Amino acid sequence: MLIDKEWVEGWVDAINGDDSCQNNGRQFSDSITLAIGDSRYTFKVLTGKIDHIIMDGGPLVDSVFTLAADTEVWGKLFLPSPPAMYHDIFSLIAIGEMKFEGNIQLVFQQLSTLAEWVRVGRELNGEIEIPPDPKYLEEWQAVGRYTNVVVDECRHKVFYFEAGEGIPVICQHTAGNENRQWRYLLEDRELTKKYKFYAYDLPSHGKSDPPFEKNFFGEDHLLRSAWATDFVVNFAKSLKLERPIFIGCSIGGVIALHLAERFPEFFRGFIALAGATPTYGFYHDWWIDPKVNTIMTNAGLVDSVMPPKISRWDRQINRMCQTAHPRSLRNDLHLWGVENSDEKRAERIDASKVPIYMYSGEFDFTCPPEHVEKSAKAIGEVNYEMLEGLGHFPMSENYDIFRPTLVRTLEGIVDITG
Question: Is pLDDT of 322 > 80?
Answer without folding.
Answer: no
